[in-house]
Amino acid sequence: MRHTVLYPLHLGIPLLGAAVFLAYGWFAGRSGPGLLSGYVEAIGLALPFVISVVCSGNIRLEEENHFQIFLGMNKHRWKNFLTKFCVLVGMGFLSIAAAVLIFGAGLGYFAERNPAVRIPWMLYLQLTAVLFLGAVPLYLEHLFLNLKFSGMVSQCVGVAQFLLSALFLTGLGEGRWQFFPCSWSARGGAMLLQNWIYQEKKGGIGGRERMQTAGICLLLLFFICVIIGTWFHYYEGRHCND
Fold first, then answer.
1. What is the model's pLDDT at position 3?
2. Nearest Cα to 109, choosing from 190, 18, 38?
């Protein structure tokens, strides 16, 4: 991957996204939780499509040698899949962390002029964790789509997931978004921010609903891992022409 666009992509998108939103906040005179909420939702909405593009580019490298190295360089093929998954997830985590922390540093500059909009760094770390954990099943799904079908199919699904995630940010997502992994990052980040604002104003709320939501997400993630892991055990490659 050293001579591909995958590394620049993971660095350029966080820098560009943070710069655009900070510039908007500067010229529009907006800062604080409102601007951060819009930024977090934008990251969550973009993740399904960006991940589909990243996975498509990575699997295209395997297509060039007809999956021979990917399927044949190790006696236990699941190790190859796990290695690829961990590399992509690791780069995704660094990219998400850079996007959130760079933006947090910019908002910190705004807070020097207006202490009322100061946001604790612990919240940025929590947002990074929520956005990243919501993206983990998307890597599994799009690796499966690219290996089973093609990059075009994966990117079309990524666009559909983007639209579904945007829809589930509205009231239509109440009680449903937990069952659609594509909405976990956007909706989870929005809920975390809302909970922080509510705590600041009301003095805290119970966490029973959050525990139930986390349980549903973890159970679905477990089933996704089992299903895709079982499928890959019998995977023999595919034709390399879309």
1. 82
2. 18
| Cβ pair 139, 89 in contact under 8 A | yes
> Tokens in use for 88?
């992509």
Other CB atoms closer than 10 Å to residue 12's CB: what's the count? 12
Compute the Cα dihedral for 147, 150, 151, 153 and give only its sign. Answer: negative
Task: Identify which has the larger pLDDT, 113 or 15.
Answer: 15
Q: Please state the pTM of the whole predicted model.
A: 0.91
Q: 11 near 92, Cβ under 8 Å?
A: no
The tokens describing 93, both together, are: 């985590």
Check pLDDT > 50 for residue 19.
Answer: yes
Numbers of helices and strands, H then E, in the chain: 8, 0
List CB contacts of 158: < 8 A, sequence separation 6 or more: 48, 49, 50, 51, 52, 53, 142
